[in-house]
Amino acid sequence: MAMKIRLARGGSKKRPFYRVVAADSRMPRDGRFIEKLGTYNPLLPKDSEERVKLDLDRVKYWMDQGAQPSDRVARFLEAAGVVAKKERNNPEKAVPGKKAQERAEEKAAKAAEAAEAPEEATAE
Fold first, then answer.
1. What sign does the CA torsion over 90, 30, 13, 51 have?
2. Model pLDDT for residues 13-44, shown as the tens digit of each residue
3. Domain assignments of the chain as residue spans, ordered by start
4. Does domain 3-80 have CATH number 3.30.1320.10?
5. pTM (global) more than 0.85
6. In this structure, how many other beta carbons lie within 10 angstroms of the beta carbon of residue 1?
């Protein structure tokens, strides 16, 4: 049985609340799960103690049994110090959009023109 440690959504519309659960990977996101391991409330401030609550002993147990954490749960576990921090690389995230690149090129062209104009005035 392929086990996952993942989030199961609860809460009403526009008010998300998640349970961290150990579940068979073939079950639906909000469907049947084996054990509740904690909670995650994204509406609370990031520095709040209540935002992420995990039963770390049970999480370690399930990971020893072969359960794989989802990306978001892995980040929670990294913050808690259970899992080693994984290096992430998304080079496209740092690249500006097309319009921003065009504005930067226009600004550079104007700066080059402004730099040339005073030189011509002093040469005469």
1. negative
2. 999 999 999 999 898 888 889 999 999 999 99
3. 3-80, 91-123
4. yes
5. no
6. 9
